[in-house]
Amino acid sequence: MNRFLLVSRVRSSTAALASPRLEHGLLVVTTAALAGGGVAHFLDATGLADLFWGLGTVSAFVPAVGWVLVALRRGHAGVDLIAVLALGGTLAVGEYLAGTLIALMLATGRTLEEAAQRRASHDLHSLLAHAPRSARRRTDDDVVRVPLGEVAPGDALVVGPGEVVPVDGRVESAEAVLDESVLTGEPLQATRHRGEVARSGAVNAGGAFDLRATATEQDSTYAGIVRLARQAGAESAPVVRLADRYAAWFLPLALATAALTWLVSGSAVRAVAVLVVATPCPLLLAAPVAVVSGLSRASRRGVVVQDGGALENLGRAHTLLLDKTGTLTVGRPCVLDVVAAPGHVPTEVLRTAASLDQFSPHVLAQAIVDTARDRRLELSAPTEVTEEPGRGARGVVDGHRVFIGRDDDAQARPAWAKAVDNRALLDGATVTWLAVDEHLTGAVLLRDPLRHDAPHAMRRLRSAGIERLVMLTGDRAATAQEVAAVLGLDGAQAELGPADKVAAVRDERGHAVTVMVGDGLNDAPALAAADIGVAMGARGSTASSEAADIVLTTDRVDRLADAVVIAQRSRRIAVQSALGGMLLSLAAMAAAALGLIQPAVGALLQEGIDVAVILNALRALRADRAEQVGLAPATEALIHRFASEHEELQDVLQAVRAAADRLCDVPEPSALESVEEAYRLLTERLLPHEYAEEHELYPALAPVLGGPESTATMSRAHTEIGRLSRRIATHLQLVHATGGLGPEQLDDLRSCLYGLYTVLRLHFAQEEESYFSLAP
């Protein structure tokens, strides 16, 4: 029992010594002692001045001894031991003013360090404070508030205005307006429609909405982020251990220098002066300040780092391995193209397919419906809907019997449908066929596309010092090679299972510090095997997030490049702060040993060194100029506007491609109608868009990108788009003048349409990669 009480008292004493109140109180006492002694000295009351300064020295000496004992108990003999010796030395030789200055320096340094840590980790603590504690569950006749742990999948919840979404779920109201900045770092609000996912941690920025829970508290997105945040900064990074190694030789060096000075000069005052200037109490704490500041900076960019060691390792990485699906690609199917049979138009094919697919849970159906809504098509309400898993759906749309899904009868397909099959094979796409009243009328091609920000992110990673970029994927080799070629990767390994990915990671680790990036459940073993595992946590699995050292909470791969730049800068500042402060202290020690610095002056000098070094470490909190391009709000709004227009103009590109496809050797009359329709869309929608880009967007981007020459290539593409459009117009004029499409026009008109389609696809991709990826 006595032993238990003794342990409890020791722990209580340790906690008291680490209390910010003690440090703040010590700062007040030492400041008052220094000021009181100064006033007494000014009034020629020398004895009273020494009394004040002596009390100030003793007030710091007692807790300093406690801090040293606590450190020794943990196996660390830090530089606080020098402070204790210096304080004791000033008391022994009667240099009370120097002792008070050391005491003030010690109190100021520890208070500054505590404030720096608090400021640096503010964002991480905000994550913890933001965590919801309860939820409002809808019952048969009421809405009751229940503890969050009681919420189960399937529960009907109500999220009121300003409330935090308690668990992951699906929106059951018409829409929900959410502020997801805590999760993603983005200040923009997101609108989630009925059936879409709402992640826990987002704040309801609109009216109350109904939510159907799909996960428990522990399995929800925000709980995983909180678990990571609780661990942030818990482990020492290698750079911090480096600072500990500095202390290992700096401490005996300081003691040896003081002893040698006393032995050679015979002056105890000089020896005390050496100890005074060798008292960098907050100095070696500057490294953790820089690392924690880097963690804070990363969290603001939507990057949650598990610990300081992961951040420091990321700053030393030279090899980056990436999963494909969900990491380099969007991770879900998107509509690549819509093809219509002769006599039909792509827009109507998409509208009909989306109308029938509205109530289908299939991932391809959702992609078709989302695309139709993005293009603002008016969908009809289907009736008599039935669905055969793995085959497709049937129903009635606008009075017609409609089927959407697989068509296994390849032999009976018309020529246009066989061309769709060939294109799907070449593009690595999946085909969903549309039949109306038992007649094949169109097809929708879907593919998992590259993220718009992926090429930009790869370039930034290269410029940040990543020497090797390799893709690891379970996908087919042909698809993997195409993605690797587009992104300029150093290699791609395809058709890999989880064990194969782990083997590849271990092989790369034998050559350099290696980062693995993934988002799926099958990536978790590879993430755990890498030096640094990075999970795309915005939509990734819980398992991959738990196995990772770093989680990207926003659905952007370019935030990984931000994290690398932040890690490198934090590590550089940490080493710079530690080494810089050490060198300044060594120079001051040499001057003190030669008698050039008295103890009191040395205390002031060391105070300045310590404060300067910690302030330098806090630079890691600020954004580096190289981290991101600064965009004016108006420019960012323009980027979002034109990016949205790109989505809306996809049907124009499809119309141009469809018109070219129909210009066979003996074109039907409907083929010319397709050309006329395509040209109408060009003149009414696409060309005004290109004109607005040239005269609104590009001038706004030029100052950000370094001048008008930065957009010159894109302007040249606008010129080519205009030239091909005028050439098509001339062909149509000839058709009207001669009463038909002459054989001599056929090849050139078809070339113009295919050429225009190719230029537009390339031009859109270049703008999305180079310009649109600049805006979050």
Automatic annotation (TrEMBL):
Q: How does it sit in the membrane?
A: Multi-pass membrane protein
| Alphabetized UniProt keyword annotations | ATP-binding, Cell membrane, Membrane, Metal-binding, Nucleotide-binding, Translocase, Transmembrane, Transmembrane helix
Instruction: Tell me the ranges covered by the Hemerythrin-like domain, including all copies.
Output: 638-774
Q: What is this protein called?
A: Heavy metal translocating P-type ATPase
User: Which chain regions cross the lipid bilayer?
Assistant: 25-44, 51-70, 82-109, 246-265, 271-292
Q: Name one Pfam family in it.
A: Hydrolase
Which protein family is it in? Belongs to the cation transport ATPase (P-type) (TC 3.A.3) family. Type IB subfamily.
What positions does the domain P-type ATPase A occupy?
A: 131-229
PANTHER family reported for this sequence: CADMIUM/ZINC-TRANSPORTING ATPASE HMA2-RELATED (PTHR48085), CADMIUM_ZINC-TRANSPORTING ATPASE HMA4-RELATED (PTHR48085:SF5)
Gene3D superfamilies attached to this UniProt entry: Calcium-transporting ATPase, cytoplasmic domain N (3.40.1110.10), Calcium-transporting ATPase, cytoplasmic transduction domain A (2.70.150.10), HAD superfamily/HAD-like (3.40.50.1000), nmb1532 protein domain like (1.20.120.520)
Subcellular localization, per the record? Cell membrane
Lineage, top-rank taxon, reads Bacteria
